[in-house]
Amino acid sequence: MSIKDKVKMLLKEAELYKGQRLLKESKNKYLEAISLIKTNELIPNKESLITAINKKIDFLNNGIVRWEQSASTPEVSPKVQDLIQKLFTSEDIKDNDAVKALKSAITLAKFGQYKRAINEFNNLVSIDHVSVAAAKNSIKCIVENATIEDAVAQYHQWVNKKTLKSDRIMVIRKYLQDIIDKTGSIISIDAPNSSEQKNVAPMYEMDEQDEDIIDITSIGIRFNHGPKKGEHIELDVSFQAGNVLSLIVSSSDKLLIESLKIGVRLDDMDFYSPIAIFKGSGVVESNTRIETGPKRGDYSLDIKIHSI
């Protein structure tokens, strides 16, 4: 997607938010557009364009009022969710319908619409070439929105209904076990009524044909610019769609947020996966303040992997 197209998309998002009276969200999208315009020298009439956007922001500032903070994630109407999917999900002409549906579900999850995202991920679990990515992201959403016990129950539902192929089952089993271990939970994946194949080794060794996408669980960034220059920061990956990684950055780390503006190239990165650590580079594609749910105030970032 070109810089011009990205700016257009951000302005569309801002107008959509404004139309739904989500004034702070609209303002943030306008600010993202200004930040993107400032970082690119090829955009003509930059100053006049920024001035026009600032006028829109001034209008929004006059209409923004305080509202009580809420720890729960409000569910927006299905119509607005459809608009979110249509406008906020970047599309690649090479993507088939299943991949586009996966990206759309991830977009919903990033906006805190977990219930619908889980349903859409689960609809994709039976489609072979997106099954692992869909199942992993479904589990992430379930853990975020409910409990690990619910994620285990969902795993057993896939097993008992034979939704996943046996080799994929073991990939998801190991992934779920890693989450359990990471949280320090004592929950067991095994269930007495499960039809899971007991003769399959629980530790799965990944062959090159098992997954088209390397599962990146976390990243490390060595900064050679900005206020974090010289530091090494590690961040967990929230969601993954192909070579685009979504991360959450705490609002308290203002210097880190400042260092990860849209368009920033990260040339010295570590990518941590269950099978190895890779060196590579990436580019920050989005930096959005979260306005709803338990992570309200924090920032959602998308980093596109350029090389590993």
Structure in a nutshell:
The chain is α+β, with helices and mostly antiparallel strands and 308 residues long.
What does this structure look like?
This protein is α+β, with helices and mostly antiparallel strands and 308 residues long. It has 3 domains: 3-63, no CATH class; 78-183, Serine Threonine Protein Phosphatase 5, Tetratricopeptide repeat; 218-307, Thrombin, subunit H, CATH 2.40.10. The protein has helices at residues 3-19, 23-38, 46-63, 78-88, 97-110, 114-124, 131-145, 148-160, 166-183, 254-259; strands at residues 218-222, 232-241, 244-249, 265-272, 277-289, 299-307. The chain has a 6-stranded antiparallel barrel. A hairpin with a 2-residue loop joins strand 2 (232-241) and strand 3. Helix 1 runs antiparallel to helix 4, helix 7 (131-145) packs parallel to helix 9 and helix 8 (148-160) packs antiparallel against helix 9. The longest helix is centred in the first third of the chain and has 18 residues, at 46-63. The chain starts with a helix and ends with a strand. Mean pLDDT is 77; it is low at 65-73 and 192-212.
